[in-house]
Amino acid sequence: MNTKKIHIESLIDASIAKVWDAYNNPNDIKQWNQASPDWHCPSSENDLRVGGKFKNKMAAKDGSFEFDFEGTYTEVTPLNSISYVLGDERTADISFQEQGNSTLISVDFDAETMNPEEMQKAGWQAILDSFKNYVEHK
């Protein structure tokens, strides 16, 4: 599969341990995993190990639409990186880098073909921005 990679990142004013935990704990994921205030994440399951699966339900707050965002981990290096494959064979690679008292999260993911790349980038970045806001105010 020769798919274009999309890159997003965010510098979070928190320790790498706090960032890693909030990124991977299902109770935290439900608090930050949405691209806009009219969406939410009512459920999250996360088995963070190679071969483990994750499933996050994304839903419009008005009940008009929902879907499960799910995949299987292919690489997990604690406090450093995570890679996974989605059900449609697209992949994502996430790195966590300590930068002083902050943590840089970088995400590279395969673009899908149904939506424009800029729209996909904006959506994933909005979720990462929601994560940043959540962690920095937790």
UniProtKB/TrEMBL annotation:
Gene3D superfamilies: 3.30.530.20. Residues 13-136 form the Activator of Hsp90 ATPase homologue 1/2-like C-terminal domain. Pfam families: AHSA1. It comes from the Bacteria. Belongs to the AHA1 family. This is Activator of Hsp90 ATPase homologue 1/2-like C-terminal domain-containing protein.
